[in-house]
Amino acid sequence: MTKLGFVIDHRVCIGCHACTVACKSENDIPVGDFRTWVKLVEAGEFPNTKRSFLIERCNHCEHAPCVGICPVNALFKRPDGIVDFNNDQCIGCRACQAACPYDAIYMDRNRGHTVAKCNFCSHRIDQGLEPACVVVCPTQAILFGDLDDPASVVARASAGGNGAGPALRPRAELGTRPQLAYLGTSLEVMSADRTSERAAAMMTSPWDGAGAGAAPSLAETRLPHDVYNVRHASPWHLFVTLYMGAKSLAAGSALVAAAALAFGAGTERDLLALWGPIFALLFAAATAGFLVFDLERPERFLRVLLQPNWGSWLARGAYILVAFSALAAVWLVLELTGAEGGVRAAAWVMLAVGAATAVYTAFLFWQAPGRELWRSRAFAPHLLARAVVAGAAVWVVVGALADAAADLQQGLAWALVGGLAVSLLSTAAEFSRRGTAHLRRASALALRGRLAGPFWAAVVAGHAVPIALALAYLAGGGDVAVGLLAGAAALALAGQFVQDEVWVRAGQAVSQT
Amino acid sequence: MSFLSRVLNLGPGKSAPRPTAAPVRPYPTPDQWQTHREIDTHGVERNFTIVPATCFNCEAACGLLAYVDTDQMRIAKFEGNPNHPGSRGRNCAKGPATINQVYDPERILYPMKRVGERGSGRFERTTWDEALDAIAARIRAAFQEGRRNEIMYHVGRPGADGAMDRVLQAWGVDGHNSHTNVCSSSARLGYQLWMGSDRPVPDYANAKFILLLNSHLETGHYFNPYAQRITDARRRGTKVATVDTRLSNTASMSDYWLPTWPGSETTLVLAMARIIIEEGLVNRAFVEQWVNWEESLAALKPDAPRTLDAFLDLVKELYAEYTPEHAERESGVPAATIRDVAIEIGRAGSAFASYVWRNAASGNRGGWMVARALMLLQALTGAVGSAGGIAPNQWNKFVAGRHNPPPPQQGWNELIWPREFPLTHYEMSILLPHFVREGRGKVDTYFTRVYNPVWTNPDGFSWIEMLRDESQVGLHAALTPTWSESALFADYVLPMGLGPERHDLQSQETHHGQWIAFRQPVLRVARERMGETITDTREVNPGEVWEEDEFWIELSWRIDPDGSLGVRQYFESPYRPGEKVTVDEHYRWVFEHTIPGLPEAAAKEGLSPFDYMRKYGVFEVRQPGSPALHEQAGADGAPQGFRTPSKKLEFYSSTLRDWGWPELAYPVAVDSQVSRSKFNHARHEYALLPTFRLPTLIHTRSANAKWLNELSHANPLWMHPTDAAREGVETGSLARIETRIGYFVAPVYVTEGIRPGVVACSHHIGRWRLAEGSSGDRSFSGVSIQRRPDGRWMMRQQEQPRPYASDDPDTLRRWWTDGGVNQNLTFPVQPDPVSGMHCWHQAVTVRRAEPGDRVGDVLVDTQKAHEAYREWMAQTRPAPGPGGLRRPLWFTRPVKPADGAYYLS
User: Å from B305 to nearest chain A CA?
Assistant: First the structure.
């Protein structure tokens, strides 16, 4: 087997950016995007100061997260080890960008807003030509070849030797098995979480990429910090939050109704049995709408279903959403045709399908190994609890409008309290994990950083206050106005939305390069 | 496209790689260049013809290959030329970025003529015929009226070896002016005095120790070729020491970083020389044979015996006070480090290479002494003309002859070569506005060729004052591929081709070896390969962009249409007597007659010499290797030695003594205008280093390359944290930097990469155009320029660089808004009294900006600038020298006039 890889020798790289420009020229890359770039890091106290260079690019991972998460196989591993992409196939979901631990992927505006990254100049390789960066490099610092051939220059170089010390692979702890290795550099330069979060711009406008806040203070100037890097906007933003919210509402409204029907709904059976599937379908449609609308190429969305990558939780999730919607439709038809037993059976099935619908997104986030905040085991139960909260909240409002019986409202109040309590515990688990600096920085952003305002608002106003209101409602028996519970429901929903937004943003806010 | 194929991807899968046909290689081989098919990054199979070109971004003249798409007749990309002996197929960022410049939507495509008063910045399109006739008429009148020296050609980047010398001498004018005294004339003088060559060629690849007073791993003459060879040496274990006040990338990669206080470098290097002698590491045989030690003894210690030991004792005495500890006090570099480096140098022996070109030499009064001191190290170690050492540049550069050479001019232009500076190594170009202001003369017709004095030179507002005054400059024609600040003050802006759009010849001394490159307009070659006949490069270039070779031929014919002025004869064909020479004929003659080995190499391939050069773009005249030419026999049978009066390396320079500088006749430290004792930080005083470069840019020629601009577009003020704390600033704060004649406002960049007490601001960045309504490049800041009632000039940025719509979608994708600040406007001229070099470093004060200050603000008082000029002029020791000479006859000079012109009487 051939396994093409790069070894970049930072003993001789002079930080000239020729590779960057030759790559732009060869690959028609828009201004603002890069397939390879040279990060500059300054460290040390005068006169023991050093400015280090690090050539950043796709690592052509053996276990490439981008390939795993791509729902339509637009990214793929070639037999020769190159991780390549297919612009004609890409739907522009940006999941690969979220999944890549090296910030190596961008959506190419010269290629119809579809995926692009270093692909080893595969078009040149296929014609027997070296990659453009290798050709241009004045000091021949970029080596490439077959890692499986022990005689190749890269195999020998990555085995160390020549006093270079061991070859280092970026973020090796993530298990991606990069086919790119560095000589003559240090983890301090290579790992974004070992350099300061603060960055100074030596020759550019200050960049506002992930993690780069203000410049280092005067006392921190001697600590390792970037003085040149490339900005990387977060690939996922508001529409992902909206998608999460709509899905939580869909799954939750169906789950709550299904649970009530499955375990005996009391006096409000008809309300739940008719409107349960209707809400499920409406919110599922909204979920799909947000998903599709967020695509760079929405007209290609059906490929997720018709040409899926079964390993991708985006594709699996799409099928779960389809199953969920189909089940809700069947349920609705059964209810309209008066098949009560059938509805009850559908409700039992919905307990499983609704839960899957609520939870699968946790596995999608798990497919982004570099975004360590997102890799919390608490997140799956958290999503289920949130769906319960969202569903209960929907039915509280509906119940209030329909003047539903008190037993329903009391049941919903307990669901709200229980769901919020689990959600609170999950939140605590998610943000108190020990781990790498990357995780600590992401958590700190929410706990005390620039996302602390919304985060604590979601905890207090979105959890503690509604729990208190719901408990007050329950304690009051039938004497307290249902409006109190509706208020709790509204706060819980708002809190969920805010917390999702914090989750999405904090997970991506820490620089990966 | 059907619905289904829009929804689904039914095209051929991309997942199966094609079988790799051949082992991977960097380039198609030359036999494939004529027609080459290649699948591009979009998967489209395209037809190319590959034409060799020569990069024109920096001075290194690296080889390029232009991939011309023959279906669209458009250049697709540039790669390196593997046959080029200097660059060996590899390039820096500026090579491939050439494509940006070719397709820059803001480039000048047609000849332009000013509208309104000069300096309004407004232009309208004109024709080449109109421009040529207007300019030719003026020049013809000047010739007929005996005002030949009112014609001046002022060049930034020449790009062609010898071509303009020929034109100017054919015209009989002493009108060559250059950029060199804002660049390298200081180091050149130092080297010239020692070895009769104004530039060393370090054999980095074979050196055992390298001492850099430059940043050859990132910039400078000749960055890419030299970086390659320094790296080759480092791979073999060669250590590198870099002397630089700020942490260059080169310094960061070096084994030793010696961050000197500016102006202390001569002291530092002489301390090393002292250690080498004390440690007995002198190459006695070399010194004995090749250093003018006897002459030195005779001049400095006439009573001493004429022995080598006596000479070495003398040197020890001369440098008794140059102890490492003294050097540490002056420079801040620890004595132990100085000692370690000196011993490494001594041990490297004849394989020791050092280099200074700008850096300390260009920053300080007496900077030329840095080169003198370095040459002492080279001489003591015997590392001149040796493998791993340095060699005179002429040994490694090949300047081709041209047909029918005109005789040297008879006149001497004192606006360019004033008598105050008899030893200046190059033209006193920075002083032109002051000379004109003093009434020393005027310029009737002024050509600037890729020369941007308004922006680049110190005291740019004095240039603006001169250029706006039609009684001082009668006509200004700017020959340039791109908009520049100076072009805004021209009457004609004449678009000349970029590197791949013109002919010329370049040979650079990139290593011990010789080559000559043929720059060619690649679309012209491509279309000729497709069977077309092209007789004028304008036919193939974008718009009506021309090339200088054809322009000068045409202009010369229009100046002297009937040949009566004696000019026309030099622009006639060597093959068709009496007819206008074509560029093809011009170079055909050169290649057939002047380059040894080329006709034979061409014949071996069945090609004419001209077709050989069209095909390969470069010819290796001599393979790598270090010939000891000084040891070879000259015409008289004796070793020919060096090109000095003594034919030896001159430790003691009788020339300096005879021309009024006896106290500087041997290498000795000269007090810099920014030496350490002159600063009191409590009064906010700092030394400013305004010259350092970045690897991605090249002077004012690269701002039109979007990829380079994207990589670097800000020039913040580097400051050490202790200085920043003292002034209450941090990274991003605005500072006001006040010079003797004004101030500029820039953001601060706090770094441990600079010596405390010194601040630095990169050269290249801070380009501007006039805001609203003027021509110029929209990627620059738009500024307003106002003259205040008190006579002071105020520049303020009204528009930041911003995205704009054009044919290139990338111009709307510009994400940066910084344009930097044009700091050079605020510097007075500071001509070194000996070398004439502008001493760049500035004594400044740095304070937090004041309320109302904005980034890029510049305020200048040109009256103060003129006062500073007078003070520096007062330090000079004017000609005549011995025998009534203006200048030593043995000194080289660009476009050297007839000997008679050297005499003042």
Answer: 46
Angle at B794 between CA B788 and CA B796, to 5 degrees: 135
Residue B884 CB burial class (10 angstroms; 0-12, 13-18, ≥19):
exposed
C-alpha to C-alpha distance for B526 and A509, rounded to whole angstroms: 50
Identity of the residue in A15, A136, A139 whose CB atom sits nearest the CB atom of B96? A136
* Domain A237-367: homologous superfamily in CATH: Formate dehydrogenase/DMSO reductase domain (1.20.1630.10)
Distance CA B41, CA B46 (A): 11
Nearest CA in chain B to A123: B41
pLDDT at A210: 34
Mutating which of A9, A16, A292, A295 best tests the B interface, going by the most B Cβ atoms within 10 A? A16
Q: B737 is written with which tokens?
A: 């930097």
Kindly state the average pLDDT of the residues B847-861: 97
Tokens 């007073």, residue located: B213
**B347 shares a domain with B210:** yes
Helix (H, G, I), strand (E, B) or coil at A268: helix
To probe the interface with B, which of A9, A135, A146 has the most B CB atoms within 10 Å? A135
Q: Is the pLDDT confidence value at B1 over 70?
A: no
Q: Which residue of A has its CA nearest to B98?
A: A25
pLDDT in tens, B193-233: 999 999 999 999 999 999 999 999 999 889 999 999 999 99
Q: Which residue among A78, A138, A221 places its CB closest to the CB of B752?
A: A221
**Same domain (yes/no): B748, B816:** yes
CA-based nearest residue to B185, from B657, B745, B834: B834
Q: Is the dihedral of CA B808, B809, B812, B816 positive or negative?
A: negative
pLDDT in tens, B753-811: 999 999 999 998 999 999 877 788 888 999 999 999 999 999 999 998 889 999 999 99
Nearest CA in chain B to A230: B711
CA of A484 vs chain B CAs: smallest distance (Å): 48
Q: Which domain holds residue B516?
A: 504-622
Q: Examine the predicted complex and report whether its ipTM is higher than 0.90.
A: yes
Residue B399 domain flag: no
Cross-strand bridge partners of residue A56? A37
Please, what is the average pLDDT of chain A?
Answer: 94
Q: How many CA atoms lie within 13 A of A98 on its CB side?
A: 26
Nearest CA in chain B to A53: B249
Which top CATH class is A4-228? alpha beta
Total number of domains in chain B: 5
pLDDT digits (tens, 9 = 90+) for B13-51: 554 445 444 578 999 999 999 999 999 999 999 999 999
Residue A219 touches partner B, C-beta closer than 8 Å: yes
Q: Do B14 and A84 touch (CB under 8 A)?
A: yes
B724, B754, B817: residue with CB nearest A205: B817
Quick check: pTM over 0.90? Answer: yes
One-letter amino acid of B888: P
B41/A205 touch (CB, cutoff 8 Å), yes or no: no
More confident of the two residues A23 and B425: A23
User: How many whole angstroms separate alpha carbon A257 and alpha carbon B706?
Assistant: 59
